[in-house]
Specification:
Length: 331
């Protein structure tokens, strides 16, 4: 997914200071774009916290009737230094990328695209999607592997029955199940469906920090309530997570050890310096601008770092202007 903000700020992402108990991050609404501006609710990055483990971006959207929103139409755009994670609750989206991967994003199925040194891709909802509802996430790649070749993984996790709940573990390990999908840093990603009245205790890695996004329902985490759309953060040190639901609820559970590196994130790029981001932007613009104008068909893009989405005739997304400020990396 592209970051659709018209004037995205330049962010130096560092780990926030630990807080006792559950830290609650409230979402902000961002228009995804398109003729009727489908809205997404963004909790990462936020003013409070930029990373949870290596998770550095979280958009939550829907349930959104396609008839009123126009659906998702994110045309080819670039990424560097990250991996994208697509997870749907309802709907269907077609993914195409410049590494030649074409795949459907469907409910309960993981699509993970590793951008590495550079990739471009599109995500467009299909006619089969009446309602779109899900999450789009990014994972920052560590400096040692952030320039790897692009890659793609698809995985359908089996449901794991728990006491009053069902888990689908799409990354990492939880509740006796382990995803086979390899990641560049240790990660946890799982969907939890809780019955009304469920009291759930999960054994987790105490070295991880954890994030819990409440999609729907009413849940308490460590006896503190979360409202739908809110992201709860727990610092390392918890070997167990306690969740209780007063009604049927759905939670996305994310985790990982503190990332340990500062990243510079702007628009769709993750890098390590202002100069790197400027260079990535210039390379993308050079691929899609011809004779001073945006190419009308993504298949006409010039070869370069980000490749060409050969099956997508829609026009690419040009990079927004850089902010009128120089970024200095902080740790």
């Amino acid at each position: 997914m592209s970051n659709p903000e018209h004037d995205p700020g330049v962010l130096v992402c560092t780990e926030g200071a630990p807080v006792p108990g559950l830290e609650v991050i409230e979402p902000r609404e961002v228009p995804l774009g398109g003729p009727r501006a489908m809205l997404v609710r963004r909790t990462l990055p936020s003013r409070q916290r930029s990373l949870i483990g290596a998770w550095c971006f979280l958009d939550h959207y829907g349930p959104e009737p396609v008839a009123s929103s126009g659906g998702m139409k994110v045309t080819p755009h670039p990424h560097t230094g990250l991996a994208t994670v697509s997870w749907l609750f309802t709907g269907e989206i077609e993914h195409q990328d410049s590494a030649g991967n074409v795949a459907m994003v469907r409910p309960g199925e993981l699509n993970l695209m590793t951008a590495g040194r550079g990739i471009s891709h599109s995500e467009v909802s299909t006619p089969a999607a009446d309602v779109l509802h899900g999450a789009q996430l990014w994972v920052a790649l560590p400096d040692a592997t952030r320039h790897v070749e692009p890659g793609f993984d698809h995985y359908v996790p089996a449901p794991v029955a728990l006491d009053g709940a069902v888990a689908r573990v799409f990354l990492g390990s939880l509740a006796g199940d382990t995803s086979p999908v390899r990641t560049h840093t240790p990660l946890l990603g799982a969907e939890l469906l809780l019955e009304a009245g469920a009291e759930l205790t999960l054994d987790v890695d105490a070295a991880f920090e954890h994030g819990l996004l409440l999609d729907a329902g009413a849940v308490q985490v460590e006896e503190q309530p979360l409202a739908p759309g809110e992201l709860g953060y727990l610092a390392p040190g918890h070997a167990r997570l306690r969740l209780s639901a007063t009604e049927e609820s759905r939670v996305l559970l994310l985790g990982g050890p503190p990332f340990g590196e500062s990243i510079v994130m702007w628009w769709n790029f993750v890098g390590r310096s202002h100069e790197e981001i400027v260079g990535f932007r210039e390379e993308w613009q050079a691929q899609i601008i011809r004779d001073g104008a945006l190419i009308p068909d993504s298949r006409e893009a010039a070869p370069g770092r980000f490749g060409v989405v050969s099956g997508q005739p829609l026009p690419p997304i040009p990079a927004p202007p850089l902010p009128n400020a120089r970024l200095r990396e902080r740790r």
